[in-house]
Amino acid sequence: MNIAVVGTGYVGLVSGACFAEMGVNVTCVDTDSSKIERLLSGDIPIYEPGLDGIVDRNRRDGRLHFTTDLASCLHDVEIVFSAVGTPPDEDGSADLSYVLDVARTVGRNMDGYVLLVTKSTVPVGTSLKVKSVIREELGRRGLDIPFDVASNPEFLKEGTAIKDFMSPDRVVVGVESERARDLMTRLYRPFLLNNFRVIFMDIASAEMTKYAANAMLATRISFMNDIANLCDLVGADVDMVRKGIGADARIGTKFLYPGCGYGGSCFPKDVKALAKTAGEHGYTMDVIEAVDRVNERQKHVLADKVRSVYPDLTGRRIAVWGLSFKPDTDDMREAASLVTINDLLAAGATVKVFDPVAMDECRRRLGDRVEYADDMYDAADGADALLLVTEWKQFRLPFWSVLKRIMRSPVVVDGRNIYVRKEVEAEGFRYFSIGR
Q1: Residues identified as active-site
Q2: Which candidate, 8, 119, 145, 426, has a CA 20 to 30 Å from the CA of 300?
Q3: Average per-residue pLDDT in the chain?
Q4: What percent of the chain has pLDDT over 70?
């Protein structure tokens, strides 16, 4: 089977490489010629564990190709996946310009049946706009070529994307014709050997499923952050509360970990877009809007805790461990670290940062506004407080005796609750965490 994947960002590159790994002939397309040149030379533009090996292997074996020209490969493919970005507009709605550009290119250049599958996260009803654009372009050409549209939202987690794609909880596919369903069944048949579920449904439901899933997970996070903040006020331990409610089979334990707010390319954008979609239909999603408000507030909690120790931060040196929005990625989109750092800088502090992989991304975003450490201990040298923002594994068991010796003041603010209070305090530190 021959397919094209448009967009070589996180979703597109992972999807294309994994389809190729299962024997599909894949052409990845991107309008960014520099990105395509990097991929052709074997340079992976994103950080994702294991991705470089899969891309290299399938490129060498002739199953994975890269180009800037979608039109040139349309006559050879049966399925085109649209995995381009849908960044949020200023009003919180999803920007569909890239998605519709793909549809426009398909309509202008297709010469036979094509199934255009939207893999990007898009609002409900986008498939109707995609279909209309293709029909409009075919009409301009005076042609009546059959085509289908479908929705196949991704549920990849950065840091474990390869595993998620190859052994997913489920694959959601929205179709509106038997021909489209048969094609998607053929494409995913190799994965069925792993006994996972392909769930077929109508396109609108598939589009909604993606938003609903992310909104539910974000809701659990914001709920626990709200509970944690109240625990701080009443003297309860959120870890005990989490275990107590997680033992209820109706609730479960996943996504009940409080912290300093969620970030990344999905949750913040999708929560806002879902609320915006509701508003466009005359409905207010009170819960979802509250989830977003709680999360935005939570991103300020670490700086607030530092200010509780040092009301005046002028001249204070603060160390920050972790910049990416989660471990095992260099992605800093909507990261709590950015809000924390901006709060500290605005209050007059000097900030020195360290992250295992996101230092270059931080330089791109913050430039010389912060200092960049060579390692985790260099960041803490001379610091008045150490803030743990991203729970990378290498931060889990620091040498507290070394930190005590090199820090100017022994203050630790744990934004992910990964340390044990009595152990840290036994080393002579003042310790602050979330809801404990």
Answers
A1: 266
A2: 426
A3: 95
A4: 98
